[in-house]
Amino acid sequence: MTDQQLKFHVAIHVSDISKTKAFYQRLFDAQPVKEKPDYLKFELDNPGLIITFLQVPQRVQKDFGHLGLKVMNAEILKERKAAIQKELTLGLEEESTNCCYARQDKFWISDPDGYEWEVYHLIEDVEVNDQRPESAACC
């Protein structure tokens, strides 16, 4: 099976489709492929992802966990961080942190509904999962 045969699909409820559009255009550096008054669809090749947003404020769930974008090396992480922070506010930044049994460099960013995204570079797998309060978003 080649990489092009499958794409992961996620659907997320949001409270304000226009704020969501502005945030995700910047995060993904892409335009939606479909847009309706209460709906957005981004279809990304890198990463292979179809992500849709439905404006249903009463169904927004902030504490479902988090979403992430893995980059392949430290240089790409640095580039993504520089590009994203030009237009969006970064949250916690972590270097050589242990999270999900992996040592990672990462930064966090939250969308308009509070959904947390980690953008990270995997350094190595480890046997320790850090549970410090500042790592609360982890795992």
From TrEMBL:
<keyword id="KW-0223">Dioxygenase</keyword>
<dbReference type="GO" id="GO:0016829">
    <property type="term" value="F:lyase activity"/>
</dbReference>
<feature type="domain" description="VOC">
    <location>
        <begin position="6"/>
        <end position="122"/>
    </location>
</feature>
<dbReference type="Pfam" id="PF00903">
    <property type="entry name" value="Glyoxalase"/>
</dbReference>
<dbReference type="GO" id="GO:0046686">
    <property type="term" value="P:response to cadmium ion"/>
</dbReference>
<dbReference type="InterPro" id="IPR029068">
    <property type="entry name" value="Glyas_Bleomycin-R_OHBP_Dase"/>
</dbReference>
<dbReference type="GO" id="GO:0051213">
    <property type="term" value="F:dioxygenase activity"/>
</dbReference>
<dbReference type="InterPro" id="IPR004360">
    <property type="entry name" value="Glyas_Fos-R_dOase_dom"/>
</dbReference>
<dbReference type="InterPro" id="IPR049789">
    <property type="entry name" value="ArsI/CadI-like"/>
</dbReference>
<keyword id="KW-0456">Lyase</keyword>
<keyword id="KW-0560">Oxidoreductase</keyword>
<protein>
    <submittedName>
        <fullName>Catechol 2,3-dioxygenase-like lactoylglutathione lyase family enzyme</fullName>
    </submittedName>
</protein>
<dbReference type="InterPro" id="IPR052393">
    <property type="entry name" value="Cadmium-induced_rsp"/>
</dbReference>
<dbReference type="InterPro" id="IPR037523">
    <property type="entry name" value="VOC_core"/>
</dbReference>
